[in-house]
Amino acid sequence: MTATTHFEQPTMDDYPTRKGQQPALLYRKDPTVWNQAASGPMDSATLESYDAKGYLQIESLITPDELETFRSELSRLSSDDELKQDQRAVVERASDEVRSVFEVHTISPVFAELVRDPRLVDRARQILGSDVYIHQSRVNYKPGFSGTDFFWHSDFETWHAEDGMPRMRAVSISIALTDNYEHNGSLMIMPGSHRTFVSCVGETPEDHYRESLKKQEIGTPDQSSLSILADQHGIDVLTGPAGGAVMFDSNCMHGSSGNITPFPRSNVFVVYNSVENTCETPFAAARPRPHFLGARDFTPVK
What domains can you pick out in the chain, each with its CATH number? Predict the structure, then answer.
């Protein structure tokens, strides 16, 4: 039996989750684009599309030379036996292959430089309407033949419940290091789903992150809510070439299927949060997750 811990809600909560006996669909109470007039690399049409769908795609964000550098660094990290013993590394459930490496910008000088790149940071600032800090970074590997699935989820549900992120004022950027096809486990998003928060059932177990990094069950939406969202919004499969990127809102309902093809899928993933939205006491957990999953250093990226 899994032990659970009771806790008190820290502040007024517009997005209650993991508290009730029944799931619920709640209206979003936050903007998606926090400052429509903010200057930056994206034009008004791009911002309007992001506001409507909750995501945008950039066909080519990094150069071919940069892509090769990142791929080499990815290979180095995945073959580092010492790193596999680090709690920041997650291995596949059925093998010893690396699935993810968290806080990668503190492990790798190569990725430390990338997360501060103006091509990423300026876009994040423009959407969030403020300076930003890095809430989380990681590299994801989905090897050919054995890459497992990531079930449907809203990142904000976990960040709110377990990290104490108050508002939906964070954006994720995923840079593809391999070609993304419909058949090799590409990212799927329900466009427009970011406007609805799915309140989940089940209390957060002690140190839930240890299990959820391998297979999350608490904090995942119920099938009925997913069916309603899918019927209303449909599902987009985000394919594209290596070197491209996807930016998506913290509350987008997204996931990916397993990869039984010979073609691996890998990406670098960076979460930028507004410095005006720093994490507090968790809204549905006894204590915050470790810093490599939800940063407690709110220093703005410069």
Answer: 14-274 (2.60.120.620)
